[in-house]
Amino acid sequence: MKTKSVYMINGFLEAGKSQFIAFTIAQNYFQIKGTTLLIVCEEGETEYSPELLAKTRTVMEVIEDEADFNTTKLGQLERKVKPDRIIIEYNGMWNFKNCKLPWNWRCEQQITVINGETFPMYYANMRSLFTEMVRGSEMIIFNRCDNVRDELPTYRRNVKAVNTSADVVFEDANGEIDEIFEEDLPYDLSQEEIVLDNNTYGIWYLDCMEHAERYFGKRLVMQTLVMHPEKFPKGYFIPGRMAMTCCADDMAFLGYACEYSGAEELKDKEWIVLTATLTKEYFSDYKGEGPVLHAISVEKSKEPKEPVISFG
Fold first, then answer.
1. Which of 143, 151, 160, 205 has its CA 20 to 30 A from that of 292?
2. How many CB atoms neighbour CB 214 within 10 A?
3. Is 166 in contact with 160 (CB distance < 8 Å)?
């Protein structure tokens, strides 16, 4: 028998599994010429429209009882529909440890969808089900996170304690939350001195936008270019790095204002090694508050082997 590709979507009731699946099968990148078998194991708050199913050549079959989710029943559905691929919306109240697929079904991807607002309740009362659900997932998506943003680091730790390799995504009403968590930073914030290199400068720059306070009291050491913007305040310059934002023709200079008594002696585009502290304060060119560096020392430097940074 031909091997069948399976996409397993699990999560507790009203987590948004149906909405995620409906959105995914409607996307152009997910279209195939053949038939998709969609096995639904619970009735959620979102129903699949007949128009969407017809348009995407998707045949929906429902399994209501956990006892019926077995290799015999699944094999019968395969012979009935003759699908080219299979999507399973698995019931979060069924123990995922008991999930068994026919021998010729290969799970291509397992995704767990979690409602950020109800997660604490399920995690506190159904932790064993949660553990089995996420243990083998490649991606865990927390949606509806608008009102629980302060809890997201805890949510992430809860997931990583079970599955260290999973990608964890947080979404609010506007889409994915581009949040950098402290434990994801490629340097140790417990150290008094943080050295920023090609691989860490970009992460530091982005993190400073939202969490400048993480770097208060730290000595920051970085190799940078010098820039003197027109009409910049006396005694200030911008140390920064060039970054490729999307392609070789789209480059951006990433840097924050730096207070330095010898700023006027520095030449544009020369390389330096800067040691500085950081504060968040009002700066006229920001038109508000933002990260401001305060130089401790400035040393002339040669151009590095890789002058353009990455965000690795």
1. 151
2. 17
3. yes
Report the C-alpha gap between 259 and 6 in whole angstroms. 57
Residue that terminates a domain, selected from 118, 150, 179? 179
Residues 163 and 21 both lie in one domain: yes
Classify strands 105-115 and 139-143 as parallel, antiparallel or unpaired. Answer: parallel
| φ and ψ of 129, to 5 deg | -65, -40
Q: Which domain holds residue 274?
A: 186-309
Question: pTM for this structure?
Answer: 0.69
pLDDT tens for the chain, residues 1 to 312: 789 999 999 999 999 999 999 999 999 999 999 999 999 998 766 689 999 999 999 999 999 999 999 999 999 999 999 999 999 999 999 999 999 999 999 999 999 999 999 999 999 999 999 999 999 999 999 999 999 988 998 898 899 889 988 999 999 999 988 777 888 889 999 999 999 999 899 999 989 988 999 999 999 999 999 999 999 999 999 999 998 765 556 678 999 999 999 999 999 999 999 999 999 999 999 989 999 999 999 999 999 999 998 765
CATH number, domain containing residue 148:
3.40.50.300
Name the H helices within the chain. 17-26, 50-55, 71-81, 119-125, 127-134, 152-160, 201-211
Query: Any idea which residue has 């699944």 for tokens?
Result: 74
Q: In whole angstroms, what is the distance from residue 104 CA to residue 258 CA? A: 62
Which of these three, 124, 145, 179, is where a domain ends? 179
Any idea what the CATH number is for the domain that residue 218 is in? 2.40.50.140
Tell me how long the chain is.
Answer: 312
Q: From 147, 309, 150, select the one nearest 224 (Cα to Cα).
A: 309
Strands 288-300 and 271-283: antiparallel
Q: Residue 208, class by beta-carbon neighbours within 10 Å (0-12 exposed, 13-18 middle, 19+ buried)?
A: buried
Contact 208, 276 (CB under 8 A): no
